[in-house]
Automatic annotation (TrEMBL):
InterPro entries: ClpP/crotonase-like_dom_sf (IPR029045), CtpA/B_N (IPR055210), PDZ (IPR001478), PDZ_6 (IPR041489), PDZ_sf (IPR036034), Peptidase_S41A (IPR004447), Tail-specific_protease (IPR005151). One of its GO terms (molecular function) is endopeptidase activity. This is S41 family peptidase. Residues 403-521 are annotated as: Disordered. SMART domains: PDZ, TSPc. The lineage of its organism: Bacteria, Pseudomonadati, Pseudomonadota, Betaproteobacteria, Burkholderiales. Pfam families: CtpB_N-like, PDZ_6, Peptidase_S41. The keyword tRNA-binding does not apply. Residues 89-157 form the PDZ domain. Residues 403-452, 472-493, 501-521 have a biased composition (Basic and acidic residues). It comes from Ottowia cancrivicina. The keyword Signal applies.
Length: 521
């Protein structure tokens, strides 16, 4: 290495060490036992940086090199930690508020392409007929393969009333076709309600956003104005990917006695060890009157069924777990996603941030949600004919680099082989289903008369027989491999712990019950 390059390398090392040293000082208040900086590895990083700057075939952008290195370091931790550059940071905040300009689809990356997780109800993408599982191969004239997820997001976002053409590959129909969609401001409605039958109400939460609690209070109050003597209520959390922690605590508190434990968290630093209770101080984002005080008192005692499935993740698992542990509701459906980790957003400057996993979630009884999820009290199929595609559903335990769950066992080759066989059979059924007219293939809308799980929930509330699944079973973990997390949960669930100082409103759950980092567009 030339003397000039050595000097450049040491300058980079010094600058990097200085920056990291500053970050360490800022973190010292949270953890006085930080390990010393790995100076040798930082020297190697600086040397590589210097070599790329001097020897690469063409000039490189220094800023991009550094940000890409940061992004790679963070993404190697787990599927939900993420470096938020200026654009992504802005989009993250817009998504949490429930308002942004785009197409209205939640996406993730799969084999170099962009897969649609779900179109947001009533969005331009939804009205254009895009379906979960559709693959985006081109955005206008740009091939998706080779683009990062954030680059694809930038191309799909834009100004209101402008158009973008997506080239879609639909696997089950084995065809590729273009769809032109007009961008619009997406105002996601995270709460839907209706009286499905006289005396029986249905409340659906599709996400946990900043407006969710206010919308919930207003719409549930409207239900009780129409019928003050509601005999039963179904809380529908199916395919709810999560959102804000305080919104989950508030929705749980709406049904639970005051001050009972809703969820506990535990992590490496002191502020990650916390107990969140059904108390205004734990779910109110700003000083003021308690929004839940406007709810009818009958909501605390109304017979309650909660519907969940494999797409219920994070915040929705917190609600289901709290209501289940306190025996406030009957949980019905299929085992949830299993995202039992806390992501905290820490600003790195005025317009960038770090979304980093800081803790695990535990139900009031101290049970870890991570990888296992919430197991329903009553397993119910997706349709009257069963759950033909259950083996194709992806859960947290299937994601690479996922945090281990309490007692999680290594994969059993025999079980994996059996599961692969089930998947092959499910794919054949999917191919046969694709030959039907499109109108027959679209799943029934949630809340409709053809919504099989909802009809079973109503039967439970009425004391009638429920058609329990004969095929769905719990995906168990070995009981003899404890990772110590449950014991830690027992310690913090028995007494209150300090709330995360200054981070409560930024403590957000990743809305990503799929591979990679899914985002709303």
């Amino acid at each position: 290495m030339s003397q000039k390059l050595k000097i450049a390398g040491w300058l980079c090392a010094g600058a990097l060490a200085g920056a990291l040293g500053t970050a360490s000082l800022q973190s010292a208040a949270r953890n006085s036992n930080l390990a010393p900086l790995p100076l040798h590895e930082l020297e190697q990083f600086a040397a590589v940086f210097g070599m790329i700057k001097s020897d690469y075939v063409e000039p490189v952008d220094e800023k991009k090199l550094i940000t890409d290195a940061i992004a790679g370091m963070v993404s190697s931790l787990d599927p939900h930690s993420q470096y938020l550059d200026k654009k992504t940071y802005q989009e993250f905040r817009e998504g949490s508020s429930g308002r942004f300009v785009g197409l209205g689809i939640e996406i993730t990356q799969e084999d170099g392409l962009i897969r649609i997780v779900s179109p947001i109800e009533d969005s331009p993408a939804y009205r254009a007929g895009l379906l979960p599982g559709d693959l985006i191969t081109k955005i206008d004239d740009t091939a998706v393969r080779g683009l990062s997820l954030s680059d694809a997001v930038k191309r799909m976002r834009g100004e209101p009333n402008t158009k973008v053409t997506l080239t879609i590959f639909r696997k089950d129909e084995n065809r590729t076709f273009p769809v032109t969609i007009t961008r619009a401001e997406i105002r996601t409605q995270s709460v839907k309600t209706k009286m499905v039958e006289p005396g029986y109400a249905w409340v659906r939460l599709s996400q946990f956003q900043e407006r969710t609690v206010e919308d919930f209070v207003r719409k549930v109050s409207d239900l009780y104005e129409k019928d003050p003597h509601i005999k039963g209520l179904v809380l529908d959390l199916r395919n709810d990917p999560g959102g804000l922690l305080d919104a989950a605590v508030a929705i749980s508190a709406a049904f639970l006695p005051k001050d009972v434990t809703v969820v506990t968290t535990n992590g490496q630093i002191a502020e990650s060890k916390a107990t969140f209770r059904a108390s205004p101080s734990d779910y109110m984002r700003r000083p003021g009157s308690d929004p839940l005080a406007r709810l009818p008192a009958a909501l605390k005692k109304v017979p309650l069924v909660v519907l969940v499935n494999e797409g219920s993740a994070s915040a929705s698992e917190i609600v289901a777990g709290a209501l289940q542990d306190h025996k406030r509701a009957t949980i019905m459906g299929s085992q949830t996603f299993g995202k039992g980790s806390v992501q905290t957003v820490r600003p790195l400057g005025p317009d960038t941030g770090l979304k980093i996993t800081t803790a695990r979630y535990y139900t009031p009884k101290g049970t870890s949600i991570q990888a296992r999820g919430i197991v329903p009290d009553i397993m119910v199929d997706d349709t009257a004919e069963g759950s033909p595609y259950a083996s194709l559903h992806v859960r947290e335990a299937d994601l690479e680099k996922h945090l281990s769950g309490a007692g999680e066992a290594k994969k059993d080759p025999a079980l994996e082989k059996e599961l692969e066989k089930e998947r092959e059979e499910a794919i054949k059924r999917l191919e046969a289903e694709s030959k039907k007219p499109a109108s027959q293939r679209r799943p029934p809308d949630y809340g409709s008369e053809k919504d099989f799980p909802l009809q079973q929930a109503l039967a439970k509330l009425k004391g009638q027989p429920v058609k329990v699944s004969k095929t769905l079973t719990e995906r168990k973990v070995a009981a003899d491999r404890q990772d110590g997390a449950d014991k830690a949960a027992e310690r913090i669930s028995s007494k209150p712990a300090p709330k995360p100082a200054g981070d409560k409103t930024e403590q957000r759950q990743d809305k990503t019950p799929q591979k990679d980092k899914s985002q709303d567009k």
